[in-house]
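User: Quick one: structure for sequence A, then sequence B.

Assistant: Sequence A:
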Amino acid sequence: PFGILLLVGTTNAVNITDGLDGLAVGLVIFVISAYAGICYLSGHVNIASYLRIPYIPGSGELTVFSMSVLGACVGFLWFNSHPAEIFMGDTGSLSLGGAIGIISLLIKKEILLIIVGGVFVAEILSVIIQVLFFKTTRKRVFLMAPLHHHFELKGWHESKIIARFWIVGAILALVALSTLKIQ
């Protein structure tokens, strides 16, 4: 049940975040990079025991898969950055979210997804908060949900929102990697 909830949540969080040119795919690049590093570290007995993370035999293949997803995302971002020439759509965003969820389950780092995918968590929480608050009080917390649309309505330019979300995503990915030793 937890794995199913994680997969559904991750796929929908990435899908909801895919509202601005390059926003979701840029954040996926940071998340998948962090998980590629963790997959690599989990595949080596000595490194895994030093970091006190589970040794996962065969996670080298997950590293290759993660890096191939990373390469595809970087290539896609070239054409999806503002102004976008191509769009990801539901097929792309749901599959990327599913890939992130599956990787986190396979390397037993599901809880770390809350940190490394913190922007996705904030985006999905903004929708949940908006809906629940509106149903109970008939008032809105945000001008519009998800969160990136709230900032658009506040007058922020699209590229500013994307850059700031990417900065937060990069910082969260680094924080997640730095916590490996202290878990």
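Sequence B:
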Amino acid sequence: MISDLNNHVFTSESVSEGHPDKVCDQISDAILDECLRIDPKSRVACETLATTNRVIVAGEITTKANLNIDKIIRDVIKDIGYTDKSTGFSYDTVEITNLIHAQSPDISMGVTEDTSLFGEQGAGDQGMMFGFACNETEELMPLPIVYSHKLLKKATELRKNKSVDFLLPDAKSQVSVEYNKDNKPLRITTVVLSHQHTEDITRKDLESFLIENVIKPTLEPTNLIDENTKFYINPTGRFVIGGPNGDTGLTGRKIIVDTYGGMGRHGGGAFSGKDPSKVDRSAAYMARYIAKNLVANNLCEKCEVELAYAIGVSKPISVYVNTFNTSKYSYKELENIVRNNFNLTPKGIIESLDLLKPVYKNNVNYGHFGGKDVSWEKIIKLNI
């Protein structure tokens, strides 16, 4: 129940590394990382489909790396925790189909500096990319998505350190937060946690374990849960069949989980499996970098940045900064600050954020932004 008629509730969700779509994201990014590790100039667009005991990879890759696709895929699946063939999806029995081929020369021409029509590296596609930041958490991220991620991180930690043997890899979380009329978080109204489990744990025991060992340790320090906060644990009553055996997974289907939980806008382009010549990924990382630093430098309390590109063209065709009336600076002043402090060409983004390193697989779970030791999350001093 909302405590004031002027208040509102906002909800975000997260998924675990064993969720079928996240399995696919990790495979795509593991293949990307191996390409970049051997050949930083690799061009990669790798898509993955995972279903019952089968993985299909397809896409366009141009690289000097000699890839052992089969081993990369099996290593990812094993690391996630799919090691029991009786679950219908296991690293040692999964069938793999490889449909990868080379990048189109027409696309390559526009994103390669020496052959570009404009004489410098152009964007790998048209489109708009958004970045978002706000000061309601230390990560400068929205609170609902931050704590949705933290719940699943805690559950995964317990599963992987063998604290319990009844948790399986697939899981989802959802956190609902009540905000006042000034958009300040007041309380957590509802928590949903669905976790795959073995046959031998009762629903009552599982519910008690997850509340006491995952939800309370994660959320009580916020002082935002109270006696009216509702907890829904596996609300269907049973979650034994899960992962790619329960639902077919695809790369790029968790774009809101990957970003801001719906609180910031999204341009529609997924991240995983794409090398940084694809502005879907690199420009979205830069937009977050910009938004975070505008907030961190106290230029605003909340910020959304839009960058837009045309394929083959290096400079963005538009830059937009929205601070939701939390800044003393005008739109034009903020745009000038952005243009003067950040190189927004694809080449400039790649170089300034050091995006040719194999850092993607390790940052694909629990959001690409917030609380991560990556270049696009670093705080710098801006020249105003």
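The longest helix spans residues 20-38. The longest strand covers residues 167-179.

User: Thanks, that's what I needed.
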